[in-house]
TrEMBL record:
Transmembrane segments: none annotated. The keyword Flavoprotein applies. Residues 1-152 form the NADPH-dependent FMN reductase-like domain. It comes from Streptomyces coffeae. The keyword Flavoprotein applies. It comes from the Bacteria. SUPFAM superfamilies: Flavoproteins (SSF52218). Keywords: Flavoprotein, FMN, Oxidoreductase. This is FMN reductase.
Length: 204
């Protein structure tokens, strides 16, 4: 089973990369508890910025970028994490996914996440990232994870789960979808409807 994380962080070190690592660890740990082994590949878009720009202009990806695109489209599941710029995903993040064939992510389980300086930008997950991957026909897990600067090290309160709990919950949801895909039921099997699967993932 292969899990790919795409991180669009620009700084070094990057909180976006840190969040991507925490999320992939949560997915891997959950799947390990279910008896599955997972190969994780984290892609840093920062190192591919020039190649992405050249591809947009020429229409042809250089070999390194072509390999990365193949890794993303060939993965069993995807974790996509972007920093927030001007109340939306970064230009580098959007430019990269503009290079993905619109049909290539159809049915692929995706966990979306974002980082920012303030919690005021958390709705970027619902008004920008989720519509993007819905357009690409991916299966986006119910829980999206936003990490503001103040969230790191926070345990939450009586009304809001802390960042570690949200990471575990989202990772568990993606792990559930990946484990279901790994089972690969035949057409004669009794397959639960997608809506029922998602409702089972939700926590009351």
């Amino acid at each position: 089973m292969k899990l790919v994380a795409v991180s669009a962080g620009l700084s070094v070190p990057s909180s976006t990369r840190l969040l991507a690592d925490r999320l992939t660890d949560a997915v891997r740990d959950d799947l390990a508890d279910r008896g599955h082994t997972v190969e994780v590949d984290v892609i840093e878009l920062r190192a591919l910025a020039v190649a992405v720009a050249n591809n947009l202009v020429t229409g042809f990806p250089p070999p390194q970028l072509a390999t990365v695109i193949e890794s993303v489209t060939g993965a069993d599941g995807l974790v996509a994490v972007t920093p927030v710029f001007t109340a939306s995903y970064s230009g580098l993040f959007k430019s990269f996914f503009d290079l993905i064939d619109p049909e290539a992510l159809t049915g692929k389980p995706v966990l979306i996440a974002a980082t920012g300086g303030t919690a005021r930008h958390s709705l970027v997950l619902e008004h920008a990232l989720r519509p993007l991957f819905t357009y690409l026909r991916a299966v986006v897990v119910p829980t999206a994870v936003y990490a503001a600067s103040e969230d790191w090290g926070s345990g939450g309160d009586a009304y809001t789960q802390g960042l570690p709990a949200r990471i575990r919950r989202a990772g568990g949801e993606l792990a559930t979808l990946l484990a279901a895909r790994a089972a690969d039921p035949g057409p004669e099997d009794d397959i639960t409807s997608f809506e029922k699967q998602l409702s089972d993932l939700r926590v009351d």
